């Protein structure tokens, strides 16, 4: 029996063998914090293992190596945001309300998940190399565009949306407005003060982001 399998058996006697999903979830939660705080190069498997309820060998057993763990962290981060979008059940809402709900969700998700924003920033430093290795992330994000395609199609059919509104561009705009709010919060508030990052400031920004996106998408009033 290999050393890794011996280690798996030992941890199994402590109860973890009966909950492999729990083991992996615990590892991914800790790894998310470590990678988002320290980047891919700065994060250490030893440090991640020390903060989990398992061992370094179990991390290698489930994820292969640090690159494999980082890739899974990215996949899980994107899976969560797309699952949140799916739960909005937008197909059963009128197009304007559906677009409003999607913008509100994106703003709220990014605001409450700064780790996700930092992971995306880190992956941009790596020129999207690990995203390119994941078929799962590609399919998840294709679904996000398909959702906007449906909203835009219905909005155009009902004579509410401009005919030249493109779902991909709309996704870019929603993402950009919601992303900057988190990615540049430290520098923006340091330079201009933290008023916009108070509870009332964030509520105002959220409302105005929705208004900006709707003004872009909707036909002008006659």
UniProtKB/TrEMBL annotation:
The keyword DNA-binding applies. Residues 21-81 form the HTH tetR-type domain. Residues 44-63 bind DNA. The keyword Transcription does not apply. Keywords: DNA-binding. InterPro entries: Homeodomain-like_sf (IPR009057), HTH-type_TetR-like_transc_reg (IPR050109), HTH_TetR (IPR001647), NicS_C (IPR041474), Tet_transcr_reg_TetR-rel_C_sf (IPR036271). It comes from the Bacteria. PANTHER family: HTH-TYPE TRANSCRIPTIONAL REPRESSOR SCO4008, TRANSCRIPTIONAL REPRESSOR. This is TetR family transcriptional regulator.
């Amino acid at each position: 029996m290999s050393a890794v399998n011996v280690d798996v058996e030992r941890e199994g006697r402590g109860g973890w063998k009966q909950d492999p999903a729990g083991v992996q979830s615990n590892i991914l939660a800790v790894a998310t914090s470590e990678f988002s705080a320290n980047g891919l190069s700065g994060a250490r498997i030893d440090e991640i293992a020390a903060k989990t309820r398992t061992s370094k060998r179990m991390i290698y057993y489930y994820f292969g190596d640090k690159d494999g763990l980082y890739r899974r962290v990215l996949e899980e981060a994107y899976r969560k945001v797309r699952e949140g979008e799916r739960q909005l059940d937008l197909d059963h809402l009128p197009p304007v309300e559906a677009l409003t709900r999607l913008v509100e969700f994106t703003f709220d998700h990014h605001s409450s998940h700064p780790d996700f924003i930092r992971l995306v920033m880190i992956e941009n430093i790596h020129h999207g190399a690990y995203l390119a290795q994941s078929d799962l992330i590609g399919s998840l994000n294709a679904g996000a565009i398909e959702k906007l395609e449906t909203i835009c199609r219905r909005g155009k059919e009902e004579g509410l949306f401009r005919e030249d509104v493109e779902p991909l561009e709309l996704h870019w705009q929603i993402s950009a407005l919601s992303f900057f709010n988190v990615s540049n919060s430290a520098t923006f508030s340091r330079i201009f003060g933290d008023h916009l990052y108070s509870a009332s400031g964030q509520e105002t920004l959220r409302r105005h982001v929705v208004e900006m996106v709707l003004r872009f998408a909707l036909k002008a009033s006659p």
